[in-house]
TrEMBL record:
The active site is at residue 306. This is Alpha-hydroxy-acid oxidizing protein. It comes from Siccirubricoccus deserti. Belongs to the FMN-dependent alpha-hydroxy acid dehydrogenase family. Residues 1-14 have a biased composition (Low complexity). PANTHER family: 2-HYDROXYACID OXIDASE 1, S -2-HYDROXY-ACID OXIDASE-RELATED. FMN binds at residues 106-108, 135, 156, 158, 186, 282, 304, 337-341, 360-361.
Length: 431
């Protein structure tokens, strides 16, 4: 990653940059935080597309807010009088060295938020030497993305259960052929959920030009022009199955028809058998599921509530980490996503027990706000902030983050039978 400041050798606020300011430094000055990028994205992108990325399940997306509040509640007690001049934020995961402990989470149909976003983020991840996870329903095909990011490319699979998972297995074989370093199987979409704002906004693929959609587009001229130049996004990975000349609508209908029920433990065991490299399961929140995954030989337990997009009653993602990490006990890596918006959030995540984390919206907002420059802006900002925060907290390396003194009031607790305990209501036995 190309971040510059370490908190003790640099100046994140850019003091003295003055006349020699580079374009990248100028962006860092104008958009110092991910909140600035989100505000700019909101202004720049058609409303239905912005709501698609920012929103969650249900009405008003309470689980998105819950993720954020729980993250803010994690406190780290800093340690001082250490030599922080050599802070290292590099780490090894599944046998590969990455320059920082944060990667790009899979985001399907993200080309609707900014055209070619998949390619922009893949290229930035490659340059920054961090993982890039491509979605099954990406808008740039996996063959192309793996070419752009040969050292960073991972593939995320949504199960397509028809014909005994014929297509899921074909997708896995394609991911192997293009050299994906890891396969991520997403568990937390067993059903499709109603996202009220998307329904209200009349969001469909391809866009249907109703008065409200036209109004939204007219208010976002930069986005509209870019969309006009580059074309509406399509589900490129599906072309092989629908036909090279398939229309946007035909590809979308195919996804709608085939992505129905998610995956079962039996499917996961089959995928494990055929996938030769590292495999992670994404969306785990219960220690018993983590245990089952480890027993199947899974290498990564990815704690996530899908960024608050699937189940409003789910615990905040960060609150699930300690119990899962304890259950896994080092037998697999613990990966994390949910409301990572800063280097501090990365440190919080590592401090409560994760080995590596991923961000979704933070990267998406950066590209929506800044276009092609947004990918590198985000990777550089993360690197700078992680290094600065590590130094401030007295954490000298990624491994050392796990030993930080941390207060985590919302952490889920489970009794030996796997029932949630702590300040929850009295439990019946878990089924
Ligand atoms: C627009 C959007 C699309 C997403 N698409 C997928 C997907 O195709 N597959 C998947 O496993 N997760 C998907 N996710 C969930 C992310 O991988 C990740 O779990 C979540 O965004 C993390 O929360 P954060 O956005 O607050 O960082 C999507 C998230 C967003 C915002």
């Amino acid at each position: 990653m190309s971040g510059s400041s370490t908190g003790n050798t640099g100046t994140p606020s850019g003091w003295g940059a003055g006349a020699t300011e580079t374009p990248a430094a100028r962006l860092r000055r104008r958009f110092p935080g991910f909140g600035d990028l989100q505000r700019r994205a909101k202004w720049r992108v058609a409303r239905f597309a912005y709501d698609f990325v920012a929103g969650g399940v249900g009405d008003g997306a309470p689980n998105v807010a819950h993720n954020r509040a729980a993250m803010d509640a994690v406190r780290i007690v800093p340690r001082y009088a250490l030599d922080v001049s050599q802070v290292s934020i590099a780490t090894t995961l599944f046998g590969r060295e990455y320059a920082a402990p944060v990667g790009v989470a899979p985001m399907g149909n993200i080309g609707m938020v900014w055209p070619q976003m998949d390619a922009i983020l893949a290229a930035s991840a490659q340059k920054a030497r961090i993982p890039y996870v491509s979605s099954t329903v990406a808008n740039v095909g996996m063959e192309r993305l793996a070419e752009i990011a040969p050292d960073s490319f991972w593939f995320q699979l949504y199960g397509l259960p028809a014909e005994n998972h014929r297509l899921s297995i074909d997708l896995i074989r394609r991911a192997e052929a293009v050299g994906a370093h890891a396969l991520v199987v997403t568990l937390d979409v067993p059903t499709r959920q109603k996202r009220v704002h998307d329904v209200r906004n009349g969001l469909v693929v391809p866009f249907r030009y109703r008065p409200r959609t036209v109004f939204d587009i007219a208010r976002a001229p930069f986005w509209a022009l870019e969309m006009l130049n580059k074309g509406q996004p399509r589900f490129e990975n599906m072309r092989k199955y629908v036909g090279e000349t398939a229309s946007i609508g035909e590809l979308a209908a195919f996804v709608q028809k085939n992505m129905t029920t998610g995956v079962t433990w039996d499917d996961i065991a089959r995928f494990r058998d055929i996938w030769p490299r590292a495999m992670a399961l994404k969306g785990i929140q219960h220690p018993a599921d983590a245990e089952r995954a480890v027993a199947l030989g899974v290498d990564g337990i990815w704690v996530s509530n899908h960024g608050g997009r699937q189940f409003d009653a789910a615990p905040a993602s960060i609150d699930s980490v300690p119990a899962i990490a304890a259950a896994v006990g080092g037998r697999a890596k613990v990966l994390y996503d949910g409301s990572i918006r800063s280097g501090l959030d990365v440190l919080r995540t590592l401090a409560v027990g994760a080995d590596f984390c991923f961000a979704g919206r933070a990267f998406a907002y950066s590209v929506a706000a800044l276009g092609a420059a947004g990918g590198e802006h985000a990777t550089a900002a993360f690197a700078e902030e992680i290094r600065g925060t590590f130094g401030q907290a007295g954490v000298l390396s990624v491994a050392a983050a796990a030993a930080a003194t941390v207060l985590h009031p919302g952490a889920m607790r489970f009794d030996p039978e796997g029932n949630a305990s702590g300040n929850e209501v009295p439990r019946r036995r878990a089924g």
